[in-house]
């Protein structure tokens, strides 16, 4: 698994997930429950993980849609 995206904005996570699933790339959101527990004040980021084999394709999808990626 590789981290593709890290953000405190839940709308970006939802948008990225929809884009990737539309391309047949499985996504795994991480830290969702911690983000909810902190009260939605935006302190703890959520992460979006993809399989290592899908990482390069997923980066292309994100870049084509102007979504900033984790380094």
Automatic annotation (TrEMBL):
Domain DUF2007: 1-64
Signal sequence annotation: none
Superkingdom per UniProt: Bacteria
Descriptive protein name: DUF2007 domain-containing protein
Species of the source: Acidimangrovimonas pyrenivorans
């Amino acid at each position: 698994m590789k981290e593709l995206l890290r953000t405190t904005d839940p709308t970006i996570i939802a948008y990225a997930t929809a884009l990737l699933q539309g391309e047949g790339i499985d996504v795994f959101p991480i830290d969702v429950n911690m983000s909810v527990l902190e009260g939605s004040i935006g302190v703890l980021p959520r992460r979006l993980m993809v399989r290592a084999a899908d990482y390069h394709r997923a980066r292309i999808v994100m870049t084509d849609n102007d979504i900033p990626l984790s380094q």
